[in-house]
Amino acid sequence: MSPGSLVLLLSILGALGLGDPGPLEDVVIDRYYIPKICLREVQMGDFIRYHYNGTFKDGKKFDSSYDRGATVAGVVGVGRLITGMDRGLQGMCVNERRHLIVPPHLGYGSIGVAGLIPPDATLYFDVIMLDIWNKDDKLQITTLSKPEHCNRTVENSDFVRYHYNGTLLDGTPFDSSYSKDSTYDTYVGTGWLIKGMDQGLLGMCAGEKRSIIIPPFLAYGEKGYGTVIPPQASLVFSVLLVDFHNPKDGVFLEHLEVPASCKRRAVTGDFVRYHYNGTLMDGTLFDSSYSRNHTYNTYIGKGYIIPGMDQGLQGVCMGERRRVVVPPHLAYGENGAGNKIPGSAVLIFDVHIIDFHNPADTVEIETVYRPEGCNITTRDRDFIRYHYNCSLLDGTKLFSSHDYEKPQEVTLGANKVIEGLNSGLLNMCAGERRVLIIPPHLGHGESGARGVPGSAVLRFEVELISMEEGVPEGYLFIWHGDPPANLYEQMDLNKDGEIPADEFSTFIKTQVAEGKGRLMPSSDPEKVIADMFRNQDRNQDGKITSEELKLKSDEDQEKIHEEL
């Protein structure tokens, strides 16, 4: 006989006035298993689901919900159950087990149930309570854990990604996102979820864990769901909210550290070098430039990076630390990227700006100290001595002339130093100090150099120690006036018709000492004179003849080579 038939028979018996309800104590109740935690007890008017075996005193079974493969569901205390059952189920907890002994007058009385239960039969029930709810129930939400910082909570129309374990009220699992190795992704408040979940997810923070108990009328109701969720089942969800966003979201910025002095902010078209840690909203690291020991280098606002980062790096200062929260529609969308960024994932980038520049940048010059009465300044071809400290914009020291015994020496405009440094050393006075900011296209470029990262902006602190006036490009010596008309005769000091190296050297040194001309500045003037002699000794026989000696101006016209 089905439970419905039993209920119908009970109604008929009640109408005929058969059976005596008897005193409550006539039902014998043995609570042989009581769970340690009992959040709720059955009361009159509650809707319950339970399993049972029904037997006679001799152990013969007359009915069993287990045999039918379906739990019994009904309301307690409204006459839909036999009186003994109504009374015997009162006060039960979920997962509690009871033995009930129901005397005939609280069962099926002197009539019994034809072919199933004899008249005046005492009934023995072994019952386990599986579910309890009431039509006045509300959603039960328990916060299990919550992040310390929660800038935003879930609202209707947000798109959420969460993990869950779903069980019935008795603990029977029916579904889990963890078993699928994928979050459950959906919109909230748009009817895509059961009503209880739509309500239960509201107000959650990313990273929060909740227990949500949903009564059947806010879940799958009388129909249940497939074979895993019975009709009229309360559902328990243990939920971990991984992340959420709204389709209308833009990039969210959090300025973690901004230098006190920010002379310039990055704009579209700038080339930025930065370090970053990339995490999901639950803190899972998916990428880091630090792990590669190399900055990420790119143009911003040009579409070389995800749109959210293109926007999020606008306006950064050098040295700034910034958190950029990027919604999926400005990141990798529904498809995600690789096996580390799930579809529809919100991305968090903690960024440290190392430097940035624009391809149109020139050398930035800051004069720290300039002596009074500065009338003579450096020009191309001048020979200078200077001290310098070179570093990256984040303060990383690269090189310093102070690490050596002597200042750095160089002829300006001779392509002996990077273009930006050469430019920054022009128009300086002896004793002047400057700070130079050199963009990479005037420094070591995209490839960098030993100890210098590619595309790095360089900072030089320079101090000009001394300077010597130079000579035009291609010259090793220039006259301060017109050269002697009879140059060869004057150079041939012993008048033997040839000029060896020592005679040539003596003559040139005399001209310099008397102020008639000057050598190309160098830390080794002897080498300069030796180079001059070698250029004039065209047949390399160790002496210069009158036919070999030529002025530089004459050679320029003849386009032979460079000399006096």
UniProtKB/TrEMBL annotation:
Region (Disordered): 533-564
Superkingdom of source: Eukaryota
Domain PPIase FKBP-type positions: 45-133, 157-245, 269-357, 381-468
Gene3D superfamilies: 3.10.50.40, EF-hand
GO MF, any single term: calcium ion binding
Keyword DNA damage carried by entry: no
Subcellular localization, as worded in the UniProt entry: Endoplasmic reticulum
Range of residues in the leader sequence: 1-19
An annotated GO cellular component: endoplasmic reticulum
Stretches assigned to the EF-hand domain: 486-514, 524-559
EC class: isomerase
Predominant place of localization: endoplasmic reticulum
UniProt-listed InterPro entries: EF-hand-dom_pair, EF_Hand_1_Ca_BS, EF_hand_dom, FKBP-like_isomerase, PPIase_dom_sf, PPIase_FKBP_dom
Reaction it catalyzes: [protein]-peptidylproline (omega=180) = [protein]-peptidylproline (omega=0)
Keywords of this entry: Calcium, Endoplasmic reticulum, Glycoprotein, Isomerase, Metal-binding, Repeat, Rotamase, Signal
PROSITE patterns (alphabetical): EF_HAND_1 (PS00018), EF_HAND_2 (PS50222), FKBP_PPIASE (PS50059)
EC number(s) on file: 5.2.1.8
Function (record text): PPIases accelerate the folding of proteins during protein synthesis.
Name of protein: peptidylprolyl isomerase
